[in-house]
Design goal:
With 623 residues, the protein is of the alpha+beta class. It contains 13 helices and 30 strands. A hairpin with a 4-residue loop joins β16 and β17. α4 runs antiparallel to α5, α4 runs parallel beside α13 and α7 packs antiparallel against α8.
Amino acid sequence: MNEYPLIADHGLIGDLQTAALVATNGTLDWFCSPRFDSPSIFASLLDHARGGHFSTRPVAEAFATKQLYLPDTAILITRFLTKGGVGELVDFMPKTGTSPSEEHRLIRMVRCARGRISFDIEVAPRFDYGRRTHRLSVCGDGALFDAGEARLALSRIGEEGDETPDSYDDTVDGDLHLSLSLEEGQVRGVVLDTAPDAEPRKIRPAEAQRLADATAHFWQNWLSQSTYTGRWREVLERSAITLKLLTYAPTGALVAAPTAGLPEEIGGERNWDYRFTWVRDASFSVHTLVRMGFVEEAIAFRRWLGDRVAEPLDSGTGPLNIMYRVDGSRELDEEVLAGWEGYRGSYPVRIGNGAAGQLQLDIYGEALDAIHYIDRFGVRIGQPGWLAICDVLEWLADNWDRPDEGIWETRGGRKDFTYGRLMCWVAFDRAIRLATAHGRPAPLSRWMAERDAIYNQIMDKGWSAEREAFVQHYGDTVLDASLLKMPQVGFVAPEDPMWQSTLRAMHTELVSDSLVFRYDPSASPDGLGGHEGTFSMCSFLYVDALARAGRIEDARLIFETMLTYANHLGLYAEEIAATGEQLGNFPQAITHLALIDAAMTLNGCLDAAEQKGRPGRMRRVAG
């Protein structure tokens, strides 16, 4: 399985409607178009033979590679160091507008920085997850890959008078191979255009550079909105750019990740499609984006969320789905790509997501918390929106005391998950605050009664005297890292002895070298085989919880340790294996959201400690 690069050996580029992954060896091995959740065109990351790829690499027996982003942008630079010279591959996608578009551009500029260098370029698309064949037509300025309803136009980047590339061959599979020889200072390359009417043409290096400059200006201008000036600023800004790359501009919806099928265990079955918008994950983004100064993005998602709340939904799982497509539609039927081997043999490869029909009660708390939070910044709810919220709360009042599948989307049956009850408490609490702050008509007596009933139930059934901790679900003693949100949402005080005891229990059972497991599947079967790594979001939640609890030195050491698990560009997948290898879909939005939140909480605590004259010394983490 050595055909597959490590998950962490990738950078992300995008145009705010879709995205692509580029490996450190120069292979673009994941790209869907025209949207994040559209069928793939390049997907060799999930099947090196069937998936399709777009590779650019030097012609050399041996070479070293380095990868970086142009500072403060989403322009990815892969450097190749060979005996004969140093070359650069510059990958980017010019920004599309806020209207859905079928026109997307992948620009790959190659440059000789020193000496001489030759590049091999191979374009091997596999439309619709490899299920649709295409016809290749080659001309002097490029080529056209035509698959009927979908097509790609490849245009050469070159100067007037350039000869035909050193090699320009097509294969029986409709793949294209070309090679370019460059001397120091020369810039050449190719552009792939997905527009239905696109045709190949020669693009001058100066034009390609203007597109690169405009793209850099967009990202640098966008990032200048950040109001964060504390510690780890560059780390947080890279996470913010990543979150922006995962946002579908026409609606403001944030996808959980740009990929599908990357495994939580190599060779295992926990391989899911994350190219959709989870109400939970995206609601978390409102807090994070506003705290960093990116208010427009938070407002855009708030509108998207408001539209979902206002939609009538005849479903046994409540007025909200747990996830949607980026345009708000609900068709997420899960299927398996027949014959695909999966990343390093991790089968099955799933597209769509069967968890979409689950009952997950926590989403109502996350949604109301986001609406309440941004309301504090002047983004008010209109009368239709308020009536829709009241309808949601009426349903929740009748249904919060039901078993559900829980935040982790287990497939082992419904249970009385404590986290689900916690967030139902949040839903009622935030709705009460909204009603009283703005004098809105509401059945406050009932909402207060339901809120208090949930609180009392959690204290009675969600607390285990045996474990001296809050537990995953009622009637058991299993711990769950999702409950690290308890002090963050205001359910318990960080200094509460019950919470301090819970933190100690979690440290003993769920924490390994700063890394935090979601829960123990062997103690709480989730209906799936195999194992999983530690969950990076939970690790950053743990940092946040420690900082709030006054264990600032512990929190800082764990945060700094977590930063060592990022890839070379500061990106995180969903999980981390015992070996330190990144696992799961990549990069994952909720991990970067949790990173930003943890850093900002910890930074505030460190500032407060310094003002009190306490030294920021480090000490060994204790349970």
